[in-house]
Design a protein that fits this description.
The structure is a homodimer. By secondary structure, chain A is of the alpha/beta class. The first copy, chain A, folds into three domains: 42 residues, lambda repressor-like DNA-binding domains (434 Repressor (Amino-terminal Domain)); 135 residues, Response regulator (Rossmann fold), CATH 3.40.50.2300; 124 residues, Response regulator (Rossmann fold, 3-Layer(aba) Sandwich), CATH 3.40.50. Chain A has twelve helices and twelve strands. In chain A, the strands form two sheets. Chain A has a six-stranded parallel sheet, with helices on both faces. The first copy, chain A, has a six-stranded mixed sheet with strand order 7-6-8-9-10-12, with helices on both faces. Chains A and B meet through helix 4, helix 5, strand 2, helix 6 and helix 11 of A and helix 4, helix 5, strand 2, helix 6 and helix 11 of B. Strand 2 of chain A pairs antiparallel with strand 2 of chain B. The structure holds a DNA duplex.
Amino acid sequence: MKDIARRAGVSESAVSFALNGRPGVSETTRARVRGVAEQLGWRPSTAARALSGEGAATVGLVLARPAHSLGVDSFFLQLVSGIQEVLAERHLGLLFQMAEDVADECAVYRRWWAEHRVDGLLMVDPRADDPRPDLLDELGLPAVVIGGAPDERHPGLSTVWADDAAAMASVVDELTGLGHRRIVHIAGLPGLAHTQRRIRTLRAEADRRGLSEVHSVTTDYSDAEGAAVTRRVLRASPPPTALIYDNDVMAVAGVAAAAELGRSVPADVSVVSWEDSALCRMVKPWLSALSRDSTEFGRTAARELTSLLDGGAARAVRVPVPRLTVRGSTGAAVSRTGGGETAGPG
Amino acid sequence: MKDIARRAGVSESAVSFALNGRPGVSETTRARVRGVAEQLGWRPSTAARALSGEGAATVGLVLARPAHSLGVDSFFLQLVSGIQEVLAERHLGLLFQMAEDVADECAVYRRWWAEHRVDGLLMVDPRADDPRPDLLDELGLPAVVIGGAPDERHPGLSTVWADDAAAMASVVDELTGLGHRRIVHIAGLPGLAHTQRRIRTLRAEADRRGLSEVHSVTTDYSDAEGAAVTRRVLRASPPPTALIYDNDVMAVAGVAAAAELGRSVPADVSVVSWEDSALCRMVKPWLSALSRDSTEFGRTAARELTSLLDGGAARAVRVPVPRLTVRGSTGAAVSRTGGGETAGPG
DNA sequence: GCAGATCACTAATCCGCTTTAGGGTGTTCA
DNA sequence: TGAACACCCTAAAGCGGATTAGTGATCTGC
């Protein structure tokens, strides 16, 4: 900046005014300074800016999943891609970190806060009884909760959420319309807030329709557990005629497990995946799946955060309800009593 | 820091000395200051530290893949997970950004450099004729190239690489051992350095063995292109008896495409996936695949970068050669002349 | 018993930028 | 013609640490 000042023949303060659009310099001087700065390829040091009270120009994102449970995943990168799109426009950096668990994640939040490393945070995978919102309140960091339900106890936090309840209802609608009355929901991690929302909604929908043989089983999202749980529930007597999987990985693994037991999809059992991706089109039959635009989800979250950083009020934004794309894995329910014989391919 | 100084009854300089292990304070004072700092949960502001010449305590990573081509992926998150493990130990932050293409990525490098945002960079997806190493040289940023071949033209850059040539040779060994003589390699993006290395090696191995019906086809790594190319090459006369896919997604899509054409795996055609993941165990038969430890790959890369940041010399580190895990998708070659009739399941 | 060295600590400067408080100059109006 | 007021610009302080140059006080050696 000294360089610019010297070459433009003005003081450093004038340079600062000129480059930041502040009043106090003539338009001609401003243009000259801008020219010199551009020519020198100058960019303000974020450290210096941060130190003089402008904030770190960075937002943080922590992913608390143990490394080994990081499997095939499409959602997260799509989400981050959308986030980046919005952040890049404003030249905001994204500080990314992985953590072992939520406690670890909280420690990261505290450290980042103490080090003035971030101006705001994006929080993913909200849980039932989550300590993070309280912490964020305490630290006073602007933050957006991604995928949580609106939470009136934390008026300072913005929330971007999809209406799982409505989506679950639409799936149940579709399945009962096809005649299914015995449905098992192979859910994800029990601790996650959206897992619990889905389980609650399923129960409510079942009660409303008088279906007694509908329940949820929680898992760790892995293909292994997806397959194991599928085998277990399909061996019940009578077995369910429809399975709802909380992610695509388990759904695909479940179809394979069903095939091993001699059950064909959708003749013997219908399958719905709560997450659409290329995976759903890699098995036969293609999986009926709930689709959402994860990239747009990310964009929305990032926009909410920038709005918060600009001093906007916190709010809850709902993204479109995931829509069920019906493909080949859902069909009419057949009544069957028990057994193991195989039907032919549908 | 003023607070600490006041509460400990010493000057701010003394606090700085005490907390940074510099001589100039007594051990008792040092302990007292440390106690106060800990009690206050104090952490130095990265901005201030950076401004006084300590560096930004941050390394950067840019992923230049268009958002839409971000599909199901296991490699990248595993890699980042390993990187984080090492960086977290040293309290180094990871600044992450997505870019549209390499030119965009270069712009990000320049900006980060000008803004003093990062102390070093991790560069992924090296390409043939890549402008990034030159740029990194020019900017003088410590950097590690992940997945490139050692490059003597850029002595300042460290490289962490897997020996694709050896891995490809092992695959060709396995396949020719099974009697395959017509092999098609369904490769990834033509611009990537490792794609070209694999293609070159395959050609060399084929020449060495006198196999004339061996070639590579490049794709965009997507399931769609994987399937399309599979259909095309299997319709050739005579068709290949073995297919090598450059990633798991295409391999799985390819198996499905083969099935549509009435070719069964491995009876009619053997399949090898160059990337192992849960995906490879979601299809029947399970896919023979080249496995590597992506997390360890990330750890190694991060360690090289920290070593560079500590003033260590740049070097090329080779990680273990990906090992072929033989599963059900590879079998003995059958000679067939043309046609479309189907063999039964193997 | 006194110079010189050592030790424990403080004062002052700097990093690069923003911002507040002035300081000239020129114009306007009484 | 002088006061009031814009207008452009400069000087200086401050952000939170690290660092360098001191400053007393205690210790060492002769």
